[in-house]
Amino acid sequence: MLSIRNLQASVGDKPILKGINLDVKAGEVHAIMGPNGSGKSTLSNVLAGRENATVTGGSVTYQGKDLLALAVEERAREGIFLAFQYPVEIPGVGNVYLLKAALNAQRKHRGLPELDAMDFLALVKDKMKLMEMNESMLYRAVNEGFSGGEKKRNEILQMVVLEPSLAILDETDSGLDIDALKVVSHGVNSLRSPDRAMILVTHYQRLLDYIKPDFVHVLSDGRIQRSGGPELALELEREGYAWVGDATNEGVVAP
Amino acid sequence: MNSVPDTLEGLISLEYRHGFETSIESDEIPKGLSEDTVRLISARKNEPEFLLEWRLEAYRRWLKMTPPTWASVHYPPIDYQDIIYYSAPKSQKDGPKSLDEVDPELLKTYEKLGIPLHERAILAGVAVDAVFDSVSVATTFKDKLAEVGIIFCSFSEAVQHHPDLIKQYLGTVVPVQDNFYAALNSAVFSDGSFVYIPPGVRCPMELSTYFRINAKNTGQFERTLIIADQGASVSYLEGCTAPMRDENQLHAAVVELVALEDAKIKYSTVQNWYPGDKEGRGGIYNFVTKRGDCRGTRSHISWTQVETGSAITWKYPSVILRGEDSVGEFYSVALTNHRQQADTGTKMIHIGRNTRSTIVSKGISAGFGQQAYRGLVRMARSATGARNHTQCDSLLLGDRCQAHTFPYIEVKNNTATVEHEASTSRIGEDQLFFCRQRGLSAEDAVSMIVNGFCKEVFKELPMEFAVEAQKLLGVSLEGSVG
User: Fold this and answer.
1) pTM of the full predicted structure?
2) B453 at the A interface (CB within 8 A)?
3) If pLDDT is split at 50, 70 and 90, which confidence band does A7 have?
4) How far A69 CA lies from chain B's nearest CA (Å)?
5) What ipTM was predicted for this assembly?
6) Would an 8 Å CB–CB cutoff place B104 in contact with chain A?
């Protein structure tokens, strides 16, 4: 589904990604872990098409297409979803309005009929139950006055409504208490399917207790230093990231 | 990549799409302004003696006045001798008897503007008094309105058929010497709309006028007068567009509203005059005096404006709250893009007891746009128990535009309450990226964010125009008309 080859990117003049290689197949869940400043968020942003990072080399192929040539909204309509680390507020724009506009923009792109208000409401109310959200949140402005946990739930609500092919979750667990983490994880897990892939970007192992990854990658200094199964995350939790850095210094690169 | 610009920068730099010019012959008088010009205009319009004298009085006062300099707008001095003060489409000289007699070129122009003049007007229930340059070319629904005693016609017609009403009310809200531009307008005004709603009558439909500046080098000086007699109510919408030109054109209108006891007037404006090009060349100077007088007890005047056009806007729709328990409202969305400048706001003059006013102002600046909110709330000594609430929000797009707020508050009665709230925010690349990541185009995203910001004002517009205004605002950010 997704194939990243020697991807390099800078923010300003500073090189952040220094040659990322990663393959994600349909049905797989990949966790990308790493210390602060390792390039995790930059990788998420580059995949979603944010302009603040400049791609300086390498390629990304998504479902056979050159992903880097697509505009942000085209990537979204092709099924790429980014759950934001810091969801923005949009005063005066109703949550329900944004969701409906987004869903219909994507459906239109895929040649599906747009949903009318009734069908849409039925769908979204169903998904809200899943996310244990109060319906009143539909009519509030997007993220305005939402608590940190509510904002994250709202991100995952958008994800379960839009049903992306490739979901990228950028530090979705940060700022969540344990109950909210369970709800958010439940939402994410409900989307797991053989034709859908996910990339979880996280600093902590905690999220992976609830969403079991198939693969774990350790990102440090702009490169994937090690890859492995879920046990790698536990190892990281025990040892911390310091040893990854040490390994780098010694020039030992993971398989 | 598609061809639609996907950055804020790209979106706000597109061009005006209503810059066509209608080629029809005009009946113009020579450039320049003198007492003779005033006499000539009055004679062309076959006006009664009292009106000529009124114009001449205004002209003489105007000669002694100077343009206001306190607004935060900048432009080279205007040469008032270089303006044509009267222009009428020639084919309209004798006036159309029905729509069939209207110049097809004109009708085409209206069609391009999307004005519902024909059956569309009937379907939409909108009565349109369309002003093309200086002469009113078509008035629909007049007969139907006349059945309930409502007078809705061009100002010139009112002068001919209802001189008593004109004599009684003209200049009683905005006196000739009120300000430089109002005095100029009083001297040379060409045409406009006149509305009279008799006692106890609720106007059964929205009344609407579309102004359009077409002929070159023509200053347009509309004069509109709306009177709602005791217990009457009316909702009036004014919409404007102008073709693209290099020269700046002066537009100095005066609108007077009079609400008697228990009367209600709702006046909504959608203004989309040509704003000039990206470098600030050309565009309309929109120097307008609009004022309502809540003369009677429990009267109510409400201004709603959506201002997206003009190179320079200088405009303060105001309400004088004279009658006890009268209510004044001002809801405004103003957008400045490229090099547009706007100094706009309102005045709420509380004189009567327990008068109330509400001000909601939303300013949006993009490109190098300059915007100032300027508002006066005055509580006179007599305004016992009066209340005002002002909310004033600015939204910035990009980092080269400016927004300023100048609230003036004068309170001479210690039982009066005045509240002022203000905020400034910015559409970030963050919000734009978020919306696009969910699948919306950049254009739709900006439009959605800006419309969200303006929601409180749009909900005050008559239903059928709220949608139009939303679209207009969205596309004005790309510089075109919806």
Assistant:
1) 0.77
2) yes
3) very high
4) 7
5) 0.93
6) no
